[in-house]
Design brief:
alpha+beta; 3-stranded mixed sheet; 10 helices; 15 strands; globular
């Protein structure tokens, strides 16, 4: 649902961070909204029996094989790829429930509308389309000598919350998450143009203390022009360089809603993609013929902030409190869709 350098602008749109970002490998950009926007934001009316939650079918894009995994093993592999084992246990639990929720939602979606590209699977391990996932060998390669302790910690966290998912009106939510928000998470409406009642702005002030919260990327005038022209070929770049990229409107969370690239109106997310930025919350500053673009946070900013979740856990919050803070109005239930509180 990360690149994160440890992983996207995906989830159809969304998940490089450096050692500073949790998750692991380019497969993780610390953001998730698996599936295409249309699929992701589509509500499902189906229900899922407890029997169907015991396993999940995953397409291994490296081999083309469809693997049948226990749900617990899948969640362990996904959490391992999506969040560092160094994070607090309650944050890992919150991530596990978000991962589980996404997996159940995918199963429902595939039951209603099978995707030919998945070859009968519910999901794949392509981090640009779905959640990231580490096989045991990938996790061992990533963690090296620390693998055993990391695996034990993540497995224990997953086991503690295995029955649970996040529900809204008795349906599994779109459990979007990002690595670091600008200090306040963003609404789905501002990022994807769709109003999702549980994906609204939430305070995440602790993100401001996350590693690489502020990150500057410099472009020469020639580099900036080339990148913008590639994404906005209809733009006019004959004016002064300082006028090639301007911010027009921001959300209350700081996300750039609209900007101009060579006079062409664009969204902040489109500028982010065009320039390879860490987020769409950015400032533009020229020094001579060098353009510095400074971003706040990392990821699309919607849903649970992973660094925010870790900070909440460090301050004493449990996994339920974390999830209900970031997914407004949602409830914690079990995978058979029955509330369990």
């Amino acid at each position: 649902m990360k690149r994160y350098g440890l992983m996207m602008f995906s989830f159809g749109l969304i998940l490089a961070a450096l050692p500073a970002l949790p998750a692991l490998v380019r497969r993780y950009t610390g953001e998730s909204v698996p599936e295409s926007t249309e699929e992701t934001l589509q509500s499902t009316e189906s229900t899922l029996s407890s029997e169907n939650t015991e396993t999940i079918r995953m397409l291994d894009t490296s081999t083309g094989d469809v693997l049948t995994l226990s749900m617990e093993d899948y969640i362990v592999g996904a959490v391992t790829a999506e969040m560092p084992a160094s994070f607090e246990e309650e944050a890992l639990k919150a991530q596990a429930v978000a991962v589980h929720t996404y997996a159940v939602r995918r199963q429902l979606a595939e039951r209603e509308n099978p995707s030919a590209e998945l070859c009968g699977a519910d999901i794949s391990n392509d981090p640009d389309r779905y959640q990231a996932y580490f096989t045991e060998s990938q996790a061992m390669e990533f963690y090296g000598s620390g693998y055993d302790s990391a695996h034990e910690k993540i497995t224990s966290a997953v086991h503690e919350v295995l029955p649970y998912i996040i529900l809204y009106e008795d349906k599994p939510i779109l459990a979007a998450f990002c690595s670091i928000s600008p200090g306040q998470t963003e609404s789905a409406e501002n990022v994807w143009g769709e109003n999702v009642p549980y994906l609204v702005s939430a305070d995440s002030e602790a993100d401001r203390f996350a590693p690489n919260y502020l990150y500057s990327k410099d472009f020469s005038a020639a580099e900036l022009k080339e990148l913008l022209k590639k994404s906005f070929p209809e733009g006019d770049f004959s004016s002064a360089a300082k006028d090639w990229l301007t911010v027009e409107k921001r959300s209350d969370s700081g996300t750039v809603l609209t900007a101009k690239a060579g006079g062409v109106i664009a969204t902040g997310q489109e500028i982010r993609q065009a320039l390879g930025l860490r987020s769409a919350s950015f400032e533009v500053k020229w020094t001579g013929d060098v353009c510095s673009v400074t971003t706040k946070g990392y990821g699309h900013g919607v849903g649970m902030s992973q660094y925010g979740a870790d900070a909440m856990a460090d301050a004493g919050a449990d996994w339920r409190e974390i999830l209900l803070h970031y997914y407004s109005g949602a409830e914690i239930g079990t995978a058979d869709m029955k509330d369990d509180r």
